[in-house]
Amino acid sequence: MTARCTLVTGFLGAGKTTLLRHLLARRPPGERWAVIVNDFGAVGLDGAALAQEDTAAGVRIREVAGGCVCCAATVPLRVALTEVLRQLRPDRLLIEPSGLGRPGALLGLLREPGLARALVIGPVLCVVDARGLDPADPIRSSMHADTWREQVEHADVLVINKVDLLDDPARARLPEWTDALYPPPAAVVIAEQGRIDPALLDLRPAAHWRPALLPQPAETPSAIRVAHAPGLGERHEIDAGAIASAGWLIDSNALPAFDIDATQRLLMRLPATLAAGGWQLLRAKGALRTPVGSRLVQWAGGRISIEALASRGDSRFELLAERAGASPAPGAAPPPPPSPPADWSEVEALLRAARAEAD
Predict the structure, then answer these.
(1) What is the pLDDT of residues 16-75, one digit of tens each?
(2) Sign of the C-alpha dihedral computed for residues 166, 198, 299 and 95 taken in this order
(3) In the chain, what are the domains?
(4) Which of 91, 206, 245, 282 suits a disulfide with 238, CB 3.0-4.6 Å?
(5) Could you give the CA distance from residue 78 to residue 129 in angstroms, rounded to a whole number?
(6) What is the pLDDT of residues 241-257, one digit of tens each?
């Protein structure tokens, strides 16, 4: 038995998880679907956001945390793939890599002889925030521009998401941006809130030329460190040199819920809090219990979103940051390394404050 396999890529905050939630909700009756979710962090936020679908018959979620599937977590991903295919025998397999992941190496892994016999590789879906198509968007000039570009260039289906957030002039320029894509995707889809036609999963992948893979960035292997976070619960840390992650598993049964307004202020303060220690916030995401139910909260690219989430018994919060000046201009002397966010004390103070205000 073979599983139809779809890779769902996209940069941080583009809306991959929201798109997957919509696809899972429209799964044809009688089909078994599996989702493998990867993120750089260690506490599994995207898996938590999809967990509400896992309760449905025929849907299973598997997380590969602690690194980017196209580099540090390749071995765990191969193990996860093998276990899912053997144990669950899904009709369809969806893989969501980290927003920092490059798809080229992952596609190579899926085409290895052992896996290729069990998979029918379908189109690569790439979800992009419509605002990121503007050449003036910060991601286009950041140190992650190559990653963003490789994700777009490998797309068979380019899903331009969040178009409802564009102004009229930007909407009018969409055809100009998409027509300039090379190589062209097999399909370009305009979407709001990640809503797309599930039939796109069976679109035939484009047979056009693929660009040469960009050099894979070196990544410092690192273990997940677990520590006690006073007043919160457990803190899980990953330090990969230029990039670091911290995630909190919060004991929601023993401690108060998060106040929504205070949580929004927390997200607004995080960039400056990290910048004071020499770090730049890439993403913050949380699945939090609040007095009005669970909420999925996110900061990405300076934008904040809060949406309803199926009820959960726990709360978790995670952020991803990079060292300021980690990629200096050519010829420029590298800046002195910032002091590491050793105990993440300032962030934890903000987290405790967001909870205390809910009393």
Answers:
(1) 888 998 898 899 988 999 998 877 655 555 555 555 555 455 678 877 765 554 444 466
(2) negative
(3) 3-202 (3.40.50.300), 225-326+338-356 (3.30.1220.10)
(4) 245
(5) 29
(6) 677 888 888 876 656 78
